[in-house]
User: Fold this.
Amino acid sequence: MKHQKLIGSIAVNALACIISIIILIPLLLILVNSFKTSLAASDMTLLLPQKWQFDNFKVVIEKGKLNLAFFNSMIYSVGSVALCAIFAAMASFVLSRRRSKSSKLLYLFFVLGITMPINFIALMKVMQVIQLYNTRTGIILLYAALQLPFTIFLTYGFIGKIPREIDEAAVIDGCSPLRLFFSVIFPLLKPVLVTVMVLTFLSTWNEFILPLYFTGSTDKWPMTLAVYNFFGMYFKNWNLVCADIVLTSLPVILVYFLGQKYIVSGMTSGAVKG
Amino acid sequence: MNEKKSYPMYFVFGALILYVVLSVIPGVIGVGYSFTDWSSYSDKINFVGLKNFATIFSPDENYLRYLGNTMVFTVLTTICKSVIGLALAVLLTKKIKGLNFHRAIMYMPAVLSTLIVAMIFKNILNPQSGLLNEFLRSVGLGSLALKWLTDSKIAFWSVMAVDIWKGIGYIMTIFIAGIMSISPVYYEAAEIDGASSWQRFKSITLPLLMPTVAVTTVLNVLYGLKVFDIVYALTNGGPGYSTEVLYTGVYKEFSKGRYAVGTTLSTVMFIFMIIVGFFMIRIMTKEEVEE
Assistant:
């Protein structure tokens, strides 16, 4: 019996290691090859480079115009994250506190947006009409708008758990609604807002469909589109493509390891109750 | 305390305006445009009735194939992600060394951009120099070294496999949270009764995990129906139309300037999703509505 348990435990551990390796190999492959020379990277093996080529990254940043792309990605992500967090928090605060039927319906109207597919072509028309087509502002507003439903879904649930007595005390002390929200409620929302911001940042950084449809000029492209374009031009130089991939993924991996706790809690909330 | 005064409606306006203008209105006018001949070739937009829908559902065109592919993709990836994700979750809730390390690794593909993942696999699945075929040849399975992404018979399977590789960690993480929320009392009782680990899984874990299964299924289905990135970046619908799905089709129509047909494809999806979405929201907000 004890013997069997030991074998079982070894098997389970081995299995977990094998699966982790299957996940890791593609990622290691890119990392290793980003340091190789063009010739050495042409067969894309997992062997360590004979000569470490740190210049690859410098070359990629210059040839791939990554400075501009990085700036674009940053401004899209940070802009939409901030906008989305504030608007969603304000809206869910009021919707969650009001006990009327109409605010409940309005909440459901927002949340329905989680599932709604985007009609990109009609959206283009709307963007043209409101003069935001092919502008950075347009992209930021779009990202904020598209992330709102899920963000409202998360913050609404969280605000429901904050006792109303806090509001009442503040109002009796003479707080205006704006002051009540920004000085009293907003600080209490920190845990959920961090989750929301991490998730929104990641998905905005990784996304490329909106810029693909709505930015005509390459100078407004984010990192993802820039790397894909670079891949099209330098597909023979996999060392450079790998270096580009590493640079594009670095911020995401960094945010992932720093905010892992928040990501998992956000991704699973709503999915698992209790 | 006056609810209307303390919680003024103008707090909602910012979110509402953004959401309505950039999300709801395009959806609605998109439906309207699908009854027209809107295109980039002419400034005039004429009403054409159901002509676009007739085009999409006509057997002479390829659009039905897009719809079919989208369905196949949705059903197969949903099943695979659920089964493998659940198996991984069960594995990673056992006593294992470096549990958090394994969980972190398996979740990692989910945080990478789909575009990046697709580029990595374009390389790995390359018929000549790709890692997969090199590996197959080195272990003497050279006959299995196929043209993963360029053979129209298997390209779609490769796309689905890559998608599963990327998506599995997310589903697994949800299942792990679900399993952890099951009270250990059940398992202790089962152990005293001498239940085998399979019996424990079948009679405790699975039934109590059903709500979670429902949610992951909905998430997988919604994702599958909307899939674009992975197909666009791996095969762009090719070879031929063998991997074309609905949203890559929409993008092709958009690039060709045939806006009306593109928006009609979106509308078909829109109507379908509203129905699916309605049930999804009911599942996700179940607890809150009951309160």
Remarks:
- Chain B touches chain A through 97 residues (CB under 8 Å).
